[in-house]
């Protein structure tokens, strides 16, 4: 999505997390390997920001310590932090995270995505939109919106 004027012209850019080296246990098909926050982070860290040619990891929008996984209850909770408190892209970013996880994870998981508390002026409204299944479904039926989300989650860049 290209905008005529950027909301955050000079975002802080952070270094990328080192790639995780798989252990022998993780590669052994005979051992049950449950999902953990790092695995979820690895799935969403390369999502492209809709406004900048940077990933959500590079902008610190997503961070491993803001992800919770409960394999027993089949739930994943992701907090994300917009780069500015009035970010108009917050809902789009949340939808991109949600779509990426829903496409990558087993169907047994319930995925919840929210703005990190205290980081956005309209966090309650954004969180309400992201939690409303009917609004999310309607948004994903919008061909232009799904095209933008697909561009955000496409692996164009090496993490």
Number of domains: 1
User: Count the helices. How many?
Assistant: 6
Report the β-strand fraction as a percent range: 5-15%
CATH topology term = GMP Synthetase, Chain A, domain 3
Biggest sheet strand line-up: 1-2-3
Can you give the mean pLDDT? 88
| Beta strand count | 3
**Spans of 5+ residues with little confidence (pLDDT < 50)?**
none
Summarize the structure.
The protein has helices spanning 24-27, 37-44, 90-104, 123-131, 133-141, 143-153, and strands spanning 67-70, 75-80, 110-115.
Notes on the structure:
With 159 residues, the chain is of the alpha+beta class. The protein has a single domain (33-153), classed as Fe-S cluster assembly (FSCA) (GMP Synthetase, Chain A, domain 3), CATH 3.30.300.130. It has six helices and three strands. The protein has helices at residues 24-27, 37-44, 90-104, 123-131, 133-141, 143-153; strands at 67-70, 75-80, 110-115. The chain has a three-stranded mixed β-sheet with strand order 1-2-3. It is globular and about 50 Å long. The two termini are 20 Å apart. 29% of the residues are buried. The model has no long low-confidence stretch (mean pLDDT 88).
List the helices and strands and how they pair.
Elements: H1 24-27, H2 37-44, E1 67-70, E2 75-80, H3 90-104, E3 110-115, H4 123-131, H5 133-141, H6 143-153
Parallel strand pairs: 2-3
Antiparallel strand pairs: 1-2
